[in-house]
Write a structure and sequence with these properties.
The radius of gyration is 31 Å and the shape is globular. By secondary structure, it is mostly beta strands. The two termini are about 55 Å apart. About 40% of the residues are buried. About 5% of the residues lie in helices and about 45% in strands. The chain contains two helices and 28 strands. It has helices spanning about 1-15, 20-25; strands at about 60-65, 75-80, 85-90, 95-100, 105-110, 120-125, 130-135, 140-145, 150-155, 160-165, 170-175, 180-190, 195-200, 205-210, 215-220, 225-230, 235-240, 245-250, 255-265, 270-280, 285-290, 295-300, 310-315, 315-320, 330-335, 340-345, 350-355, 360-365.
């Protein structure tokens, strides 16, 4: 054994010579095994992080597949960690929230209970809940992973928009409050009790929180979008538009809000030019108006890094604009029209809801050096 030989050699060198050794004139050589030197460890380069959707990568965003079936998809949302994509639809039937597997495109769950069109859905930031609002005058809160309803909220008329605050402590719901009045209700998620009501007219189809949760941007049917301070309900600004507004989003740094809808119509009241408006937050001054679409802009969404916002139009065009100079940097067409847009939590996937009842999935492809 190597260890034993080395120890024996050390002991021989350290021990005093015996009488026999002193009289022995023959030199004895002890062969010491050579211990191989381990090669130097070479550090392998860390794998490159997966590309995420941004101004630098948008050119590789590609349509990959269409999934689902049914009626007009009015709202789409990715479950946390992109485990599934949820959709809500309905015209005459199909009043359920569906969850679809991203790999197979097959349904992996359904949330049943609504009896009318589901206008919008939203996941809570921690991924525990999914909220849905409907023409049936209810909002429902679901433990979506178990398929169970945990809370039912009743209203005087239909409710059409819903979103959780960035910290998950509040749920905002907009809708009709005995027409022609409309309202935005803010609920505590700890008690599911209302803590604030803000008044509008006709309906509130869209809501967006500022990232710090201090402001909320909502409205649309009255052609006005209002910016409110959440702490006391004080109105900060009114954003006026030439037509109804169907989409609202706030940038990840909270500096701008984007609203969208129709900018111009013909004599038959058919939209001939879609519009996007960019506003300073929270003062509400107009920064820019974009009008590249020939039909309604149905939804807008910022990428998580804030370098882009996406805009989807009723005639099927998905466009992306830089937030540096608001230049158009990407456009692709898809059949079926675009009704809603969702970006996955890891910013690698995009889902667009179609007017024919299905979902289109888009994914970042290989990056060109």
């Amino acid at each position: 054994m190597l260890t034993f030989a080395v120890l024996a050699l050390s002991a021989a060198c350290a021990a005093p010579a015996s009488p026999v050794d002193a009289g022995d004139t023959t030199a004895t050589q002890v062969a010491v095994p050579v211990v191989p030197t381990a090669p130097a460890t070479q550090s392998l380069p860390a794998p490159a992080p997966a590309a995420t959707l941004s101004a630098e990568t948008i050119s590789s965003l590609t349509y990959t597949r269409t999934i689902g079936y049914g009626e007009t998809v009015r709202s789409v949302a990715f479950a946390p960690e992109a485990k599934a994509v949820a959709s809500a639809a309905g015209n005459q039937s199909d009043f359920d929230v569906w969850l679809w597997g991203l790999q197979t495109g097959a349904p992996v769950g359904g949330l049943k209970g609504h009896t009318g069109i589901i206008w919008q859905i939203a996941f809570s930031p921690d991924g525990q809940y999914l909220a849905s609002v409907s023409k049936d005058r209810t909002a429902r809160i679901w433990d979506w992973s178990n398929g169970k309803q945990v809370q039912l909220l009743n209203f005087a008329d239909e409710v059409t928009s819903v979103t959780f605050s960035p910290d998950g402590q509040f749920l905002a719901i907009g809708g009709v409050n005995r027409f022609p009045d409309a309202a935005l209700w803010i609920y505590s998620t700890a008690t599911w009790q209302p803590v604030l009501m803000l008044k509008e007219f006709w309906n509130i189809p869209e809501i967006a929180w500022s990232p710090d949760g201090q402001y909320i941007v909502a409205g649309g049917t009255s052609r006005n979008v209002r910016i409110w301070r959440v702490s006391d309900g004080a109105q900060q600004a009114v954003l006026s538009h030439p037509a109804q507004v169907v989409a609202v989003a706030v940038s990840p740094d909270g500096s701008i809000a984007v609203t969208a809808g129709c900018q111009a119509s013909d004599a038959n009241q058919q939209c001939i030019k879609g519009g996007v408006w960019i506003w300073n937050m929270p003062v509400g001054t107009l920064v820019r108006n974009l009008s590249d679409a020939e039909d309604w802009i149905e939804d807008v969404a910022f990428t998580p890094d804030g370098s882009l916002f996406l805009a989807g139009s009723r005639d099927g065009w998905l466009r992306a604009y830089s937030t540096v100079d608001f230049a158009l940097v990407y456009e692709q067409w898809t059949a079926g029209g675009i009704q809603d847009i969702a970006i996955s939590e890891d910013a690698r996937l995009v889902a667009t809801g179609r007017r024919d009842g299905r979902l289109d999935l888009w994914e970042l492809g290989p990056q060109v050096p």
